[in-house]
Amino acid sequence: MKLLINIILILFFFNKAVAENHLQFFLDAAFKNNLELNAERKNQQSIKENINISRSEFLPSVSFSGSQTSSESTSKTNQSGAKLSDSNLDSETTTVSVDQKIFQGFKGYNSLKKSELEFKQADHKLKQTEQQTILDTTSAYFDFIFKTKNEKFNLSNVFLFERQVESDSARLQKGEITLTDLAQSESSLAGANADLIKAKTELLASKTNFERITKEKVLNASSFDEKVDVKLPKTLQEAINTAKLSNSGLLIAKLDYQISEKELNIEKARLSPSASINYSKSENKDFSSTIDQLDQENVKATVTWPIVKGGENISSIKKSSLNKQRALLLAEDAENKVVTNTTNVWSKYQSSQSVLRAIEAQLKAAEIANEGITLEYDSGNTRTTLEVIQSTSLLLDARISFAKAERDYIISKFELAFQIGTLSLNSISS
Length: 430
Description:
The protein contains 9 helices and 6 strands. By secondary structure, the chain is of the alpha+beta class. A 4-stranded antiparallel beta sheet has the order 1-2-4-5, with no helix packed on it. A hairpin with a 6-residue loop joins β4 (274-286) and β5. The radius of gyration is 39 Å and the shape is elongated. Mean pLDDT is 86; it is low at 3-19.
């Protein structure tokens, strides 16, 4: 039983460690800890309350008021000199009033629709921030992987040149090579050490950026899962069509136009007549007079029609009309930019795929060439130290270029998904 428990615990912590190196783990952390994303969530909740506020305009308002008056007077004599008694004056008044708006020139209706549109807009802004968070996290994740590989390749290169220097020192003593050959190896080793320092610096910066985005501490990216994919359209035209329907920036711009329409209608409603009805009931108790209690009920209907307000209403309508025209132009411009940007991102995605294939072929050729040249050099054939150094350098460049191309390719896929508006946690697979 104890053995079984130990096995379960080992499996638990192993699976936990694996999970914490998966992209999904860091995306969940970013969604939880991202301050801008949390701020957008609060903004969405706040704007949702505007809907309830707008709906309250259709409901009656009830108010209650009450007052109490107490006074005391003492009079010793009157004008004729007769003695008067003391008097107390006490009264209470309570009033209940109900106001109901009947017609406002559809101001209330348009205010409600405006609030609903603003909530939709806030929802799209939240989704846009969510997508940006996914893109930032993914980009930092794969950049961290690349910078880790880059440091590893440069470290391996230092070891290779150290062996080269040791080998050339021994061969120099045997008279197989010249001092110049050894100097070339030593120079290459110094350059490799400089590149390694640069790679370590870049790795630290990438790690710091990744931890800033996810708010998670990590040791390295050596065990990170690279088998991640995202759903994408098959053609450019499909990508453009999807972007027109789903791009958050475009949807926000279109909602700006719809909101401006409602704002114009609200301003027009301010010039329309409005009607309301008021019911009030008051109760007055007088404890010092012959009237013990007086009850009153009032019903009042009010119609208001603004005529002239110094030209303010007319100017407000003109302003809202111009804002509507502006919003329409911006919405059209946003759609044009979506088409252009989608085309550019699609081209980048296709190009990065082609570059990856080309560099993969280059890497395979560099590996074969380096292996052959190194064997020939070690066997004492005609290969020179310079040829070995050049071959090793080309192999290093090819390895780094291939790792960089892998990073660029996967990030370009996420950038395309972000551009067309389909990037979500559910669209990512491994």
